[in-house]
Amino acid sequence: MMKDLAFIAGQFALQGTLEQVVPLGAGLINDSFKVITREPEAPDYVLQRINHAIFRDVDLLQANIFAVTGHIRQKLEARGEEDIDRKVLTFLRMPDGKPYYFDGENYWRVMRLIPRAYTYETVNEKYSAHAGEAFGAFQQMLADLPATLGETIPDFHNMEFRLKQLREAVAADPVGRVKEVQEYIDEIGKNATEMCKAERLHREGRLPKRICHCDTKVNNMLFDEEGRVLCVIDLDTVMPSFIFSDYGDFLRSAANTGEEDDRDPDRVGFDMDIFRAFTRGYLRSARSFLTPVEIENLPYAATLFPYMQCVRFLADYINGDTYYKIAYPEHNLVRTRAQYTLWKRAEALLPEMQAFIEACLAG
Ligand code: GN1
Ligand code: MG
After folding, report:
1. Rounded Cα distance, 181 and 279, in Å
2. Do the beta carbons of residue 318 and residue 170 sit within 8 Å?
3. Which residues surround ligand 1 with Cβ inside 6 Å?
4. Residue 45 CA to its chain's centroid (Å)
């Protein structure tokens, strides 16, 4: 296995001598490996097997990523930023110019590993404030991207579509799990209209789509030694979406006092200190371009993402675990329950969130 991985990595024009390939990270979708080179001055690399069942159009996927990283690099250069190689990902092309290697079955890509960078599953207030500012800056840098980005997963954060998928799963009930989860299905259904507000506002022409990251959970950011954000990684889902995607998904992961898949619902809560720090940071960099409708609905976004994730995990559980990697048979059910709890806890805090944002804007 590892020998094959070394062969695949060797298809790219790596600097230095390849010494070892070891597993890396905890993504639920792609498989990642660290490619270690022998010479201290040569960079190490990240080799990824693209999940082609999920990202069906690999050419579009890689074109998006090259457009985004190229544009960010240009922006950083234009403003004379230092240490740019740690502030934007650098993907390698194959000797023939292709942005991936196809081995006849799987698609692979390679990027440089950013040195002295750290990822976390949980963050404190200080880090959250930096993260908020970084996502606002990320969205702003991409506001004038000349290329038009395609949707690498069509309707990825479209709540109406996610509910439709759940309804289809329930109707098919392929592995007979619907009965045991009826309570969740009912509760999700009761809130469906409210939760599809973003799609309605968009249809009415009151809510724009902007280029967003769309997978802003905490472990998709690299921090430096001081807790400042170096860059955002995992760019597969960068596409046009509502800004709620980035704001909401960060809080879904960072403000959760428990784990995304916590077995104990009592540990799951929505941490308002993290919410406040992140929101303050985000507004600092994003306030200049956000519309009043976007700002007004940030608390809604904080409830939307646990809700959406609950719907997605539940649909996958009902479908017999065909999408997310699982570690044990009822994993997707445990995830559903944890996200359900988080959604309810966040919902109870809506007035408090609203008041904080108003105070922020006034102050
Ligand atoms: C997936 O690949 P990863 O683990 O960063 C998923 C996200 C979910 C997340 C839940 C392409 O992200 O949308 O929010 O799991 N990515 C895709 O942890 O579906
Ligand atoms: Mg990830």
Report:
1. 34
2. yes
3. 27-29, 54, 215, 217, 220, 234, 237, 260, 309
4. 21
128 neighbors 277 (Cβ within 8 angstroms):
yes
- Tell the residue number behind the tokens 């990027």, with chain if given: 111
Q: Note the pLDDT of residue 188.
A: 98
Ligand nearest to the Cα of 234, by number: 2
Of 21, 86, 13, 16, residue with least CA distance to 48: 21
**CA angle 209–212–218, rounded 5-degree value:** 145
How confident is the prediction for the chain on average, in pLDDT?
95
CA 105 to ligand 1 centroid distance, Å: 23
Task: For residue 260, give the ligand 1 atom closest to its CA.
Answer: 18
Distance from C-alpha of 23 to C-alpha of 192, rounded to nearest angstrom: 40
pTM for the full predicted model: 0.90
The string of pLDDT tens digits covering residues 187-229 is: 999 999 999 999 999 999 999 999 999 999 888 889 999 888 8
Nearest to 244 by CA among 194, 188, 203, 305: 305
The sign of the torsion formed by the CA atoms of 314, 215, 25, 5 equals positive
* Structure tokens, 13: 């024009």
pLDDT digit string (tens) for 229-254?
899 999 999 999 999 999 999 999 99
Residue with tokens 């690999």: 58
Which residue, judged by its Cα, is nearest atom 15 of ligand 1?
28
Place of tokens 């941490």: 271
Strands 45-50 and 18-24 turn out to be unpaired
DSSP H helices, the chain, are: 2-9, 58-78, 125-141, 159-172, 182-190, 192-195, 197-203, 244-254, 272-286, 292-296, 298-318, 331-348, 350-362
Question: Probe ligand 1: pick from 215, 314, 331, max atoms within 8 Å of CB?
Answer: 215
Do residues 224 and 86 touch, judged by C-beta distance below 8 A? yes
Closest residue CA from atom 18 of ligand 1: 28
H or E element in which residue 212 lies:
strand 210-212
